[in-house]
Amino acid sequence: MTRTKPPGSFSLRPMDPTPGRKGRRSDAELVHAWVTHPRSAYWMMGDARLEDVEREYMAIAAHPHHDAFIGLHEERPAFLMERYDPTEVELKGLYEAEPGDIGMHFLVAPPETPVHGFTRAVLDAVMTELFADPRVRRVVVEPDVAHFAVHTLNESVGFEVIGEITKPEKQALLSACTREQFEAATTGADR
Q: Residue 115 in contact with residue 6, Cβ under 8 Å?
């Protein structure tokens, strides 16, 4: 089945969590607006203050095994991507890690005007970026078990469910996608 990719290019840049300067909106302000939006309920930061977001992403920036990126569509901020070492962050001790595993979270900014296929295109861009590192053999994710839309989306790019795990903040559906699974799921699709 061929799908249509939304027009435009995608890229990522490191998130700068430092507070904004006069006349310039900071990345933390941008992300704060995204994570507190009702569409982002599964991000579990709906009641976060700007200071909470700054503190969270300053901690991520300082962590040796966790990174945050602002995703750009046509050079405009459009999504957030986090990558982490699951043996050190988020999943440490909760699953049987394999060599070459990388963990990932992503959040698409609430759209002013929804574009069909945009979230899938973002996920393709995120996965392509992660697999650009030759050391990465498998991407692991742990969305809330009740987040059915993201489970379907993950399956569309090759993720397979490993099983449910209990995290301190949620019951999660641990899933993994190898490089080969991602390539097979996207072969023949407009990329």
A: yes
Residue in this structure with the two tokens 């699951």, named with its chain if needed = 86
Residue 102 and residue 83 in contact, taking contact as beta carbons nearer than 8 Å? yes
- Answering whether pTM is above 0.85, one says yes
Q: What is the pLDDT of residues 134-143, one digit of tens each?
A: 999 999 999 9
Condensed to tens digits (0 to 9), the pLDDT of residues 112-147 reads 888 889 999 999 999 999 999 999 999 999 999 999
